[in-house]
Each structure stands twice: as structure tokens, then as C-alpha cells.
Here is the input.
Amino acid sequence: MNLVIGGGGFMLDDYHYECSKNGNKIRNEKYKNDPEFRERLSKSLSKGVKKAYEDGRKDKNWGKNWTGEKHSEEAKRKMSESSNGTGKGSNNSQFGTCWITNGIDNKKIKKCDLIPDGWVLGRKLDL
Here is the structure.
């Protein structure tokens, strides 16, 4: 899997997507049915979280359950002001691009680029 050019996540082809999906399914089944595996995984995850706290990568509010809590009006105003204009129009990371497909693969191109032979606008979804 390669990072997407320009940053922002992973580009998963069908093969890697299926591998990831199947791996998660197998791990979840094993977690439910194998007490030893569940114990090892829980200890490993706990160790990683504790190390993140020690290293200062997480603070005391990390992972806080926000159920039933609400942001204050001032917090909402600050969030609104700080995000104003981001992700809109030419500031949107997807601005000026479009999906193309050859019926098997999908990829993004700039709208001004020529669509290669055998490719059409749109994308094929296999979810």
C-alpha cells in the first residue's frame, strides 16, 4: 500500500482491501473465541497506550468518552472560526479532480488531464 500523492491516507486496491477485510474478520473471530489470544492482545494494546502516555503522545483526556457531553458555545464558535474557509472551493484537497475507471481499477486525475484510452469517468465500487 502506498500513501496517496500529496498526502492523506492510503490508496487501497481491491486485493489489499480484501486482505485487510479478511484479516480483520479473522482477528475478530479469534478474539471472540480464543481467551489466550484475547488476553495477549489486550495486554499488548494496554502496553501501547501506557507507553503513549509516558512518551507524552497522549494526555489524560485522550479517549475520553463524550457520551452525553456537549461543547460549550464558546468552543463551538472557536471551532467554527478556525475552520472557516478550509476545505471549500480551491482549498478543498479534491478540488479540480475526478475519478476514472477502466472497469477494474479506479484512479483520480485532474479534470484538465486527458482521459486515457479504455478509461471512463466515474468509479467502480466493490464494497
Remarks:
- The first helix runs from residue 14 to 33.
- The chain has a mean pLDDT of 83.
- The helical segments are 14-33, 35-54, 73-83.
- The chain is about 40% helix and 15% strand.
